[in-house]
Design goal:
The protein has 429 residues and is α+β, with helices and mostly antiparallel strands. The chain folds into two domains: 203 residues, Metalloenzyme, LuxS/M16 peptidase-like (Cytochrome Bc1 Complex, Chain A, domain 1, 2-Layer Sandwich); 192 residues, Cytochrome Bc1 Complex, Chain A, domain 1 (2-Layer Sandwich). 41% of the residues lie in helices and 18% in strands. The protein is built from 16 helices and eleven strands. The strands form two sheets. It has a six-stranded mixed beta sheet with strand order 1-2-6-3-5-4, sandwiched between helices. A five-stranded mixed beta sheet has the order 7-11-8-10-9, sandwiched between helices. Strand 1 and strand 2 form a beta hairpin.
Length: 429
Amino acid sequence: MQQPVTHKTFTNGLQVMLKEIHTAPIVSNWVWYRVGSRDEIPGVTGISHWVEHMQFKGTPQFPAGVLDKAVSRDGGIWNAFTYMDWTTYFETMPAEKVDLGVRLEADRMANSIFDADEVASERTVIISERQGNENHPLFKLGEAIQAAAFRVHPYHHEVIGDMADLQTISREDLYQHYHSYYRPNNAVVVVTGDFETGAMLARLQELFEAIPAGDPIQRKIRPEPASSGEHRLVVEGPGETAFVQDTYRAPAATDPDFFPFVVLDSLLTGPSSLNLFGGGISNKTSRLYRALVDGEIAVSVQGNLPATIDPFIYGITATVHPQKTPEDVITAIDQEIKRAQDETPTTEALTRAVKQARALFAYGSESITNQGFWLGFTEMFASYQWFTEYLDNLAAVTPEDVQRVAQTYLRPQNRVLGTYLPASKEVAP
């Protein structure tokens, strides 16, 4: 049985969500901010991710270097993530120690220092991170595909940002971004685990409600125009392995077509995990695994269907077999996509695909930390109801729904097809 969730909105606009879970003596504390690379413009791409880094550089109350030791000493874990649509911070602690995490998050919501020397040091760190990413073929290929898929919408750029911007973003840019978006009326605080709701709510109110609300955020997100035709690109770089990434414009998480697409993804490649901590399940029964991997055309294949505010892209990524070519892989993928468009899946195939998607969802929803994740994550693009109704929405998907979604979205004119080739290999004619 689902434990009830307590919702409260403070006078400064802060949204609070509490869920008691008494299965273990731990508490997971999360703060979610509605800001990510979706809120960036050319010239400051990557700034949301950089601000996330700066949040670990201290406040007057919690100087840099103190917290790692304090959290570890108390047996806790903490981390942060920046995505396209959001940035989040969390601490999972023994129940009697959770006040440290709660006090920390309230303090750095308003009092982060952004020391100039720390900004300079972190610039080096993030540029190094960006350079490291550029050594990975799938990062280079994915970045090129994103840029081709989105000409207008800010999903155009990677979360880490463009190198030119990382070299020029100033301390003032960072602090202004922090000041604009890190405000209670743009945030959701989530606490799950072994606590008493009344006492926790009172403590959160004591710590957070005095933080002043910021000005309402005026977002000017330009919708991406419909695709005008298929786009193919080739990226060359170091390595010995070729990759294919076949991507299609996909529906937003709140679109009714999203759930049939989840089932289609499960049918084609095995289900995509929506949870940062979700783990995975075998995709060996999926159509593309059997066609590509069992057929020795590819070494691996996987799909990715993110849950996003605006329509993003669905990607099928395959590692090309050393004895095959990218064109062999593309042909095999196209055959399975055509099959999905021409035939409704059998009851057996649909049942298996839904079962696998349900299983992956369940694996990523069990722990206290995962429960905290889902409460905040779904509020970033919909509401917690999206989570509670997820399984019912999957169960309602029909074979006809799956076929219709394949026909609607997996069309050549809706596709960006990318190939990564080791620099020593030649492009197939």
